[in-house]
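Quick one: structure tokens for this chain, please?
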Amino acid sequence: MSKENVVAVRYAQALLSSLSTETQYDQALSELSDLTTTFAESEDLSRVVESPLYKKAVKLKILSAVLDQAKYTNEVKNLALLLLKEERFSMIAAVAASYKEVLNEKLLRAVATVEIAQELSSTDKEELEGKLKALSGKSLEVSYIINSDLLGGFVAKIGHDIWDYSIKGQLEDMGSKILNMRVS
């Protein structure tokens, strides 16, 4: 893990520890996401915040006004201002990503990506999501990607775990076993 990621995780953990309810956790996640998008899309804001030409007091005043106008919670506002004071505001996207990971870990939530050969019915999706939840032991935010190369079945990725129940995967596995067979 890079030094920047370690620092981002520490800021994320500090933010999480300042909150107490799931509603607050999710509100902070939403605000961090919004702030990251705002910072990335606003050339004026990013230029002011990152420019050495502006004094820190001016940068803090401008950022504080933006945060007040957006009506962010005090916890997110304080984090953003602290990052700016410490000249680490450019890390806001890394802090937001780390916060989402830390929050998901705390609440036993995970993001799942499921590749499928063709669109599934809502009933099939519910059944698959239930089985993946049982496998992972976490509640899941599932996104589906259609990949016709799979021929059938699915490949699910949750964190570092991968479950390949695709026809393509089974054929490749069978092919490698055949190649590794010894004829006696």
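The beta strands are 109-116, 139-146, 154-158, 161-164.
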